[in-house]
Amino acid sequence: MFTSLKGRIQAIKQAASFKGANPAGEEPDHPISPQLNETLISLRTRFQNSSDLMVREITLGGVKTALILAEGLVSQQTLSEILLEPLLTHRFPRNAGVEAVRNFVENQSILAADMLPVYTYNELFRFIMSGFVVILIDGAPRGTACGIQGYSFRSISEPTAEVNELGSKEGFTEPIRVNMSLVRRRIKSPLLKFELFPVGKISRTDICLIYMTDRVSAKLLRDVRRKINGIDLDVVLTSGYLQPFLTGRPWSLFSDVGSTERPDVLAAKVQEGRIAVLIDGTPFALIIPYLFTENFQTLDDYAHSAFYASFIRIIRYFSFITSILLPGAYVAISTFHPELLPQALLFNIAAAEDTTPFPIGIEALIIHLLYEIMREAGLRLPRPVGHAVSIVGALVIGDAAVTAGLIGAPMVMIVATTAIASFVVPSLHEPVSVLRFAYILVGMSLGLYGITLLSLLLLVNICTLENFGQPYTAPVAPFSSFAMRDTFIRLSFRTLQKHTATLQELNGSHLSEKNQEESS
User: Which of the listed ranges 144-153, 409-418, 430-439 does the model predict with the highest average pLDDT?
Assistant: First the structure.
């Protein structure tokens, strides 16, 4: 009795230790068997006879051979022309043997440009589900993966979030290798390196690190690799899965990891010593690290003349400040500091608010909440219906609400100005939407003193952000006069071409190994 109980306890301990070693429930990796039948049986068992698994068994020189692929991921025309036809038409000698067939497949024929050896079952599964055709030969200790992907994907089109006037109209698409080619076309240098590896214990999603070997900081590259290798996710479907693991401090409204869907923007960032991350299945790339001032820069800044680009950048900074401060400042001044308003404007505001049932602060919260609801509805609905939501929203808030006496006309003007100003810097829309409500709350409770206090707290929070040793507010704080050539204003390319600053050259940066040794 005690012996059986002891055996049960040991079995439970072994099962618990196995689950701890394989948290995703995966089977441990094993080398593929030289016996083809054994490998095929194990393969079908692990795939549980999935309908998309295709196995084509042929005989080459008296040796059994199997071609394994996933339906829908391989080009059938390419499979027939450059794989099946050379294999079936080649005249192997009688009883050629395993080595002769394997030597022909791996060395004497060019079945695909991308040919890789396969040793284990995990490699076998990954290649099959990535659009490769795996050739297994009975008696051979390894297989051969041929890359002849042919799955359908969205064609390269104009970016939807980063629109420009004079730049390229190409944007990233979903397949990662297509995106890699878009970047390689723009930087034809052997110093540009692509580092491809899978992430996600179940999805095994391919991600690619892109960097310039002569410009990237060794410390930055080492830290990014360590963080990505430490990600313990089962599935990675989009860039938002990885972004929280790459941020410096999570307790902030502003993100120090940027994103872009333009290959030319990514190429420019990589030139400055940054690391870009491409994720298979998503048209957005991550940029590490990212600076606050880069939210106000666009590709058109470098296509227009220097004086006009500087003028537009100043407008962007002004629009950002207006989008977060205007509603709260209007509520604070109207409630606590009416003496700051001109007399004629004060009388108009008082007359408009006299007919409304709510205080001006509650009125601001209600109308901004309605605006956010309509914006989300117009974004999520199909495009034809989304336009109808915008028209109905404009009629309800702009006309009916004022006519019914629910909202004052000045408040409608404030909301319209704030909304238009927030569209100027779309990359900061998320923090702007939250900060707008925060400023309204402190404005209606503490007046301009609350506005000032919240602005100081926000400024301190931004200045304390640091990602992989790079201050988020650089080159403004710590101040770097050299990098200010392309911050608030942009100088001409005659000046910018003299020297290109990398991240580790900015003041306050700890990306350089030398700076790290000096600080320690």
Answer: 430-439
For residue 466, give every residue at least 6 positions away whose Cβ sits within 8 Å of its Cβ, in sequence order, or none: 248, 249, 256, 472
C-alpha 204/C-alpha 213 separation (Å) is 26
Residue 475 lies in a domain: no
Please give the tally of structural domains in the chain: 3
pLDDT at 12: 37
Q: What is the mean pLDDT of residues 189-200?
A: 92
Q: Are residues 277 and 321 in the same domain?
A: no
CA–CA distance, 358 with 354 (Å, rounded to integer): 9
Predicted pLDDT at 384: 66
Q: What is the DSSP string of 357-377?
A: SS-HHHHHHHHHHHHHHHHHH
List the domain range (segments joined by +) for residue 255.
Answer: 176-301
Give the span between the Cα atoms of 46 and 50, in whole angstroms.
Answer: 9
| Cα dist from 38 to 20, 31, 33, 126, 435, whole Å | 29, 12, 7, 19, 62
Q: Are 70 and 140 in contact (CB under 8 A)?
A: no
| Residue 18 pLDDT > 50 | no
- 8 Å CB contact between 489 and 480: no
pLDDT tens readout for residues 456-506: 999 999 998 988 889 999 999 888 888 888 889 888 888 887 777 788 888
119 and 236 within one domain: no
Q: Residue 290: CB partners within 8 Å, gap ≥ 6?
A: 255, 256, 257, 258, 274, 467, 472
Q: Smallest Cα–Cα separation from 287: which of 295, 277, 279, 297?
A: 277
pLDDT, averaged across the chain? 84
Q: Residue 383: its pLDDT value, please?
A: 67
Residue at 478 is within a domain: no
Q: Which residues contact 415 (CB under 8 A, 6 or more apart)?
A: 327, 367, 368, 371, 397
Alpha carbons within 13 A on the beta-carbon side of 283: 17
- pLDDT band at residue 392, thresholds of 50, 70 and 90? low
What is the arithmetic mean of pLDDT over 173-186?
92
% of the chain residues with pLDDT over 70: 89
Distance CA 172, CA 208 (A): 14
Residues 404 and 318 in one domain: yes
* Same domain? 286 vs 331: no
298, 492 contact by CB (below 8 A): no
Mean per-residue pLDDT for 1-20? Answer: 40
Higher pLDDT, 338 or 402: 338
Those residues whose C-beta lies under 8 Å from the C-beta of residue 16, and which sit 6 or more positions away, are: none
* 71-108 per-position pLDDT tens digit: 888 888 888 888 888 888 888 877 778 888 888 888 87
The label of the residue with tokens 């079908």 reads 44
Residues 258 and 336 occupy one common structural domain: no
What is the rounded CA–CA span in Å between residue 264 and residue 169? 10
Whether residue 263 is found in the same domain as residue 407: no
Domain boundary among 438, 464, 490: 464
Considering the domain architecture, whether residues 234 and 293 belong to the same structural domain is answered as: yes
**Size of the chain, expressed as the number of residues it contains:** 520
